């Protein structure tokens, strides 16, 4: 707003124009006419660049055009005839009207004092010193006096005075708010100083509780880890014992079967591998098969030996030449026959055992038709193969 009343540059240029105008009349030098023309152009540029109201600008430009137009005949006459007519003319009247317009919008040092106001305002905001408030109020009072004493219209004076009053009241409200903020800040700082020890104590207590809780959790976790490790070691130990026990049982049976196979290859085995009736594991099945093989071999060998002994006794009886030799041959033949009967009884018991297995499976299948499993099929197969083998032994013996 102050820029609308800042006409000092225009007033200065106007004074330079009037001075060059008078120098032209006194010295009659064309350079002063050119000087006036240059200053007129400069004045026009200042008007366009100013922040004056548009109506004021238009008045100044119109009067400047009148001055420029009427100055040219005056300058031409002064240079040719030297008759200046006392410097009177329409150009002089136009210059007076321009000066009146500028005076009507001129408040001395208005913009400078406004800058001083803003400076005191910012110094107060930066430093908070009450001295800047006093300085600002003094400058505002000076401005108010300058506006009242200026040639401005009453409307412009009232407008500027109102704006200045609003600014001063707003600034004083800002000062009051600043004082209130300072007071509140001091009270908050005092309360913070009182509360700080309590907060520190609570924080320390919370830290101690947290540390104790963390320590308890750590101890509990360590105990849980130890218990878990013990449980794991216990489970591993039990698993190891189970594996060792199972392995020993399997290895023992396998070693027994290996020994029997070795005896079977190079001797006459009499021992048998212990089996579990109804067992379903592969080792038990291998043991049963090996025992059956040994039984069949033993039966075959017994039958073969009995038949050989019987043939030898019969041959000796046929060749006996004396009563004593005949009696000895009859005794040997009787012993061979007895052994053969015993062998037949053994085969009979084996056949009865296989037959009982077949009957048992048959009865179970009749009670539950369709419930045939692999174990039953395998048991029937083994019983049938055993009977076939025993019957083949009898057939060989009969032959």
From TrEMBL:
Domain HAMP: 248-302
Keywords: Membrane, Transmembrane, Transmembrane helix
Residues that span the membrane, as ranges: 227-247
Origin: domain of life: Bacteria
Keyword Transmembrane helix (UniProt): yes
One Gene Ontology term from the biological process aspect of the record: signal transduction
Gene3D superfamilies for the chain: 6.10.340.10
GO cellular component entries: membrane
UniProt protein name: HAMP domain protein
UniProt organism field: Candidatus Accumulibacter phosphatis
